[in-house]
Amino acid sequence: MNLLRTSTSALAGFALVTMGLMVPTAVNAAPAPPPDPLTVQESGGSTAVTYGHSRTFIAASSVTEAADKHKARIEVNGKTFTAKLDKRTSTVKWGGGGRTLDPADAGALQAMAEDLHSKFLVDAAGQRALNGDTELLIRFTMLLAEAPAGVKLKDYVVEAPVMEQVSPEEEAAVGVPAADDSECAAGAEGAPGGEMSIAACQVADDDGIRYMSCSRLSRVLYHDAAGHCFESEVVTSGPGSSGSLGECGSGVTGIGTYTYDCGEHDRCGRVHGGSFNPWDSECGDEYFDADDDFLLAPIGRC
Length: 302
Known about the structure:
By secondary structure, the protein is of the alpha+beta class. It has helices spanning about 1-20, 105-120, 130-145, 170-175, 260-270, 285-290, 290-295, and strands at about 40-45, 45-55, 55-65, 70-75, 80-85, 90-100, 155-160, 165, 210, 215-225, 230-235, 245-250, 255-260. The protein has two domains: about 35-160, no CATH class; about 165-300, no CATH class. It is built from seven helices and 13 strands. A hairpin with a 2-residue loop joins strand 10 (about 215-225) and strand 11. Keywords: Signal.
């Protein structure tokens, strides 16, 4: 009886294939790969990107308004965030008008940043120079992917940060300063604009853009959190360090440039869970300290 059913089924299938009503399937054939969720269109000073990740949809675009002026817009499930860059004055205006990102948003932005990194920044020396609008869009995606979930992203202005290079010899000679608890009271109200409602001690410590040398070294990094004020630690960081600690970017997908503000944000996240717990905003002030590094530090210094 089973043999008869099998034979009848096989004959019926053969008939359908013969009539062109069914496509034959190879035995043990691998399933077709899913389509690439990232689409990128570049044309004449503009870039458009769409990205689907689980139940999150991202529509992003950027445009060159003049030779040294670019703007980007990223919409995550209907929530809009914008950035405007004036290269002539090294000024960036960015924000979301008080909108927040949740863990699903952050995961989608992280995945999109990784795909953009693979497309445009891997082996950057062998690829064409980025258009200014495309570059801003990539940087802004990485910045938003690192935003503390649930924290209102208001509107911010980054103005011509001081840039400083520290030599390997200077870095190696630096000792560990004592923690300065005297500044804790100054930060008790929260980070810039009062965004950090759940952190008891948040003090800005913006270094401008202070580059790490392109070496794996033990460096002094600072951070604070809800449970303590400034702490200084000697932490191995730079190219080749665990998780590329200090590279500005999203996760371990970065722009190939290492700075102290990015290193302190990385370190705070690893100590207090900000890198893994999407609802932890203890490292919010370190995040805002590093926004100029994300948006203005040159790509591929190391």
